[in-house]
Amino acid sequence: MNTAAGDPRPPVGDSAPATEGSAAEPVTHLVVMGVAGSGKTTVAALLAGRTGRRYAEADDFHPPANVEKMRAGVPLDDADRAPWLAELRDWMSAQTDAGRPSVITCSALRRRYRDVLREARGRVRFVHLDGSVELLESRISARTDHFMPATLLASQLAALDPLDADEDGTRLDVAATPDDLVDAVVSWTSAG
Ligand SMILES: Nc1ncnc2c1ncn2[C@@H]1O[C@H](COP(=O)(O)OP(=O)(O)OP(=O)(O)O)[C@@H](O)[C@H]1O
Ligand SMILES: O=C(O)[C@H](O)[C@@H](O)[C@H](O)[C@H](O)CO
User: Fold this and answer.
1) Where in this protein does the record put region Disordered (predicted)?
2) Which atom from ligand 1 is nearest to the alpha carbon of 176?
3) What is the pLDDT of residues 144-162, one digit of tens each?
4) Would you say residue 13 lies in a domain?
5) Distances (CA, A) of 160 to 35, 87, 110, 192
6) How far, in Å, from the CA of 56 to the mean position of ligand 2?
7) Does 37 contact ligand 1 (Cβ within 6 A)?
8) Tens-digit pLDDT profile for residues 49-79
């Protein structure tokens, strides 16, 4: 990936200790997924702080054209998302190679997008932050510091494929507090 100066994306490899990676315990990557405004950044950042996992924000991996498209109120399509998903997958693979578990935010709306992320080396697990349309609308509308307009929520919900039973993931209701959501993720991961 490109790590040119000014690139906000975290570099591969830092001083955090490698804690996973044996054959018995593969390096795990938690993908905090869901539609815009579901709380991915809030929960993932808190989780990274609590667990020491490397953290990446998928919005930082979007090419500028994608961000401009969303800012203009136009939903991304599969072609827009393909290189972005591949970069996220490759970032997780590189973390695995460095022995570093991670947590990333990524809308990962469609099953086929998650299939790309699952191609990463290591174990990729999904935490779907879900909630009522009313709650999501109120949270996304209250936000003033983000490029994503509230009008795109409907397209995000239309694109969303909930986790299938065969996927390694869990669904959490975002009516809970961020702390309680992080507790729930930690319990879920501890249970294997
Ligand atoms: N569990 C929660 N309880 C109350 N407010 C929350 C909770 N989670 C997030 N929020 C608030 O909701 C708004 C949306 O959260 P956040 O930006 O983390 O969502 P997101 O899924 O990362 O959005 P996007 O995909 O658009 O970047 C923020 O203002 C955040 O402070
Ligand atoms: O797949 C997508 O359409 C995008 O990832 C969006 O979900 C936004 O980047 C994100 O939600 C930030 O608002």
Assistant:
1) 1-24
2) 1
3) 888 888 889 999 999 999 9
4) no
5) 7, 21, 6, 26
6) 14
7) yes
8) 999 999 999 999 999 999 999 999 999 999 9
